Fold this protein.
Amino acid sequence: MEGVVRGRSKWGMALLLAALGFVACNAARAAEPCDIATPPATTWGQRVAAIACGEHRLWYSPFLDENGRLASISIAEAENSRLNDRTTPAWRRVVDYWKGTGLLYGMSGRPGASECGVGLDAWPGSAACRAFVVDTPWSAVFVSFAYMRAGVPGFAPSASHFDFVRQAMRGGPGAPLRLADPEREVPAVGDLLCFTRGQSMPIGPAGLRAYVERNADMLAMHCDIVVSIDDGKLYAVGGNVLQGVTMRTLHVNRQGTLWNLPHKTGAPALCRPGSSAACTFNRQDWVALIKLQPKTPVPPPVQNCCTLCPLPMPPDMRRCPAQPTPLTPQAPATQPAPLTPPPAPGA
């Protein structure tokens, strides 16, 4: 009887350990997607993803779940409420994207753009600037901000995603972008995943290439930045997605290519009460995977830290570790000169 009890105890302990291991594994898988990649960034893609992830956290990490439905949102672009740094109003951070890329000055003809370039504390100017933020798409500006902050060589910022496609197709020896089919090539961290907007009929990857080759002027598009790929899921962050910096969840197969990607058709999706299965923000005309492939080697990582730190500290800033004070070598102690005895009398 005692042996049976001990045997059961052993089996119970084994089951308990297995259960704890399963829970620990699931806890590891439940880690925030932006935390999966281990810093410091050693590739251009990781550098871009780090910037995009930092901005995503700043906006309280809104996201679409794997069914393409909005699962979390805390703040919107037009609000004066503070972002996660407890300092920056949401609309002013969008202005930072415009200013940080140098793209604001090309928008001077739009109402409110000039007010965004001057003092924002006066009410009339701030109201006009906030109207500009709301009325002017800034998703391509966000991509430009992340790529420029990461220092991607050869990248040309633009307020239009279509310009990124043209850069990728134009190519050249120093081109950092290459156009690919989103369902044929494997996406990687730092790549752009793009779809068209406002088209009555989808055009697909082949239609996009043909459109560019005809030297067409413009095409409304949107691109997200791939920030993480783990456990069969791809996570991408985009600006101006549902009025914020929002993460999207998609699926990849064992080969790493996108799988079960919802495609837009000519017929409108019947998203309505009683037909919620058709409601997904992931059903789009996916036309491009823009591969980030700079020819220039990645510079060594630079520690983003401060010694005299502003308060509150920016979310991507850390306090530099205290450096040990070097000991000043002391001069060896001098021995006193031996006393010379006085000369003997008469010497």
